[in-house]
């Protein structure tokens, strides 16, 4: 049955203009796992708790919930696109078919830069947890960048073995995600609650509590919370390695977003309610609110088990992000957008994995670690990684809206379903337009004290340069002439 379904998926891929070269070894659970490991409740939440408390206090969990509901609309749009075009590369391929080759190149370049920035951020955030587990102390600055680079190399070694090895470790990561997030969250709420639920509606000790700064704080909290709900598109980028991709991938994309969102909400509430006095409810009281809360309630015996769980989830996240970034680069190279001499569309015979593309992905992420040489730049790195992905989300949803309005595409079989989908697209478009501007907005409160102008304006500066540079390259180099034709291009 699996072989029959895989052959059917390969036939659909051939109808879209591609010869199957990647090995189909992922079922719906594995594709879902890659999505969950990339969105990663532990990675996303544990990185933003201090920033969320700093901006809006305990009440920031409701901003988190609003972000989840709005981001689910984006995930639904991506799910429909993934079902119609189950091709490696996701947004790059969809943009080509919805708008055209030039728009696809612009979207693809933005996507590669964005995911590279996000991969840089995740590896950088992982380093202190790994060093606490292995050295019993956190690292920062140059040391943190070195640890991050080493993690990228280890992940590349695992991913080079093929999708089977990645699947095994990512599935292990999912188990650890469940234990380190949902189970731990429920244990803290049930057995170690020190605060009344009413505290969730307060902003004590935060920027929001200051006179005249509540709106500023809420907007900053929205910018921070956006990081918790990125990466759901990972399932779409491994579509060519998924059995029954047209059904499995959409389910994985949407369900990964919903499941992770609920877990994130539970854990966020648990951390706040179980915080000891003078703990995480006072943003500046401790450097690491999560670890502080866990050890204060469970005791020091929990340190090694908890750090082990968190480290495994971080490694799984890095593996899955490197996997799907490699597929994005592979897809662009296969179309002829990237120099043929680099052979980035090569697939190793033994593992059926695009190792060259993943190596380039790791190199790009490694270059981003230069920003991490400043140990105080974590807020800037999170904002930068989040901003690029939301720009990509916006480009995809904008392309979908364009195709619907111009009649180029009918995504659903009935008029009623299509009208509902148009409403979802409209909500997603409005949400993403707001969030892109909100994340890019220069905020000194999310940067380190005494941060440079570049750190504060990083998202706007870097992605403006990327946009202008890519636009000029498209106009002068006309990469669409080198792109191989696909059925949608033919009259």
Outline the secondary-structure elements.
Elements: H1 2-15, H2 28-39, H3 41-56, H4 60-84, H5 91-98, H6 101-135, H7 141-159, H8 163-191, H9 214-225, H10 234-237, H11 245-273, H12 289-298, H13 303-334, H14 355-368, H15 378-405, H16 415-440, H17 453-456, H18 458-477
Provide a compact summary of the structure.
The protein is an all-alpha fold and 491 residues long.
Q: What does this protein look like?
A:
Helices cover 69% and strands 0% of the residues. The model is unreliable at 282-286 (pLDDT under 50). The protein is globular. The two termini are 36 Å apart. The chain has a single domain, classed as Amino acid/polyamine transporter I (Up-down Bundle), CATH 1.20.1740.10. It is an all-alpha fold. It has helices at 2-15, 28-39, 41-56, 60-84, 91-98, 101-135, 141-159, 163-191, 214-225, 234-237, 245-273, 289-298, 303-334, 355-368, 378-405, 415-440, 453-456, 458-477. The chain is built from 18 helices and no strands.
């Amino acid at each position: 049955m699996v072989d029959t379904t895989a052959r059917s998926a390969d036939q659909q891929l051939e109808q879209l203009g591609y010869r199957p070269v990647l090995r189909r070894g992922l079922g719906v659970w594995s594709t879902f796992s890659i999505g969950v490991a990339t969105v990663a409740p532990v990675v996303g939440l544990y990185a933003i708790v201090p920033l969320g408390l700093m901006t809006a206090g305990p009440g920031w969990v409701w901003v988190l919930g609003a972000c989840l509901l709005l981001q689910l609309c984006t995930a639904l749009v991506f799910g429909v696109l993934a079902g119609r075009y189950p091709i490696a590369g996701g947004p790059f391929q969809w943009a080509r078919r919805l708008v055209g080759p030039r728009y696809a190149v612009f979207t693809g370049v933005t996507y590669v830069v964005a995911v590279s920035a996000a991969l840089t951020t995740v590896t950088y955030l992982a380093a202190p947890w790994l060093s606490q587990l292995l050295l019993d102390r956190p690292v920062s600055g140059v040391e943190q960048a070195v640890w991050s680079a080493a993690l990228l190399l280890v992940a590349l070694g695992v991913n080079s073995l093929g999708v089977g090895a990645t699947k095994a470790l990512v599935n292990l990561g999912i188990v650890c995600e469940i234990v380190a997030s949902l189970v731990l969250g429920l244990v803290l709420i049930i057995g170690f609650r020190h605060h009344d639920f009413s505290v969730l509606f307060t902003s004590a000790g935060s920027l929001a509590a200051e006179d005249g700064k509540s709106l500023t704080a809420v907007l900053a909290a929205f910018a921070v919370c956006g990081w918790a709900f990125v990466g759901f598109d990972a399932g779409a980028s491994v579509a060519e390695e998924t059995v029954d991709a047209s059904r499995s991938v959409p389910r994985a994309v949407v369900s990964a977003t919903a499941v992770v969102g609920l877990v994130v909400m539970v854990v966020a509430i648990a951390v706040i309610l179980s915080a000891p006095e003078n703990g995480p409810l006072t943003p500046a009281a401790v450097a690491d609110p999560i670890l502080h809360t866990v050890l204060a309630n469970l005791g020091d015996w929990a340190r090694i088990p908890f750090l082990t769980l968190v480290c495994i989830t971080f490694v799984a996240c890095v593996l899955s992000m490197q996997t799907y970034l490699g597929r994005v680069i592979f897809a662009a190279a296969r179309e002829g957008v990237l120099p043929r001499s680099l052979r980035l569309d090569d697939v190793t015979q033994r593992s059926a994995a695009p190792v060259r593309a993943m190596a380039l992905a790791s190199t790009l992420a490694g270059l981003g670690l230069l920003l991490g040489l400043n140990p105080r730049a974590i807020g800037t790195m999170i904002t930068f990684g989040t901003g690029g992905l939301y720009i990509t989300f916006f480009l995809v949803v904008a392309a979908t809206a364009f195709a619907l309005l111009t009649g180029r595409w009918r995504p659903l079989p009935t008029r009623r379903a299509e009208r509902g989908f148009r409403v979802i697209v409209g909500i997603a478009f409005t949400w993403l337009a707001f969030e892109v501007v909100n994340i890019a907005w220069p905020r000194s409160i999310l940067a380190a004290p005494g941060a440079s102008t570049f750190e504060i304006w990083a998202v706007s500066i870097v992605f403006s340069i990327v946009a202008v540079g890519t636009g000029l390259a498209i106009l002068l180099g006309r990469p669409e002439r080198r792109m191989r034709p696909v059925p949608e291009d033919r009259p």
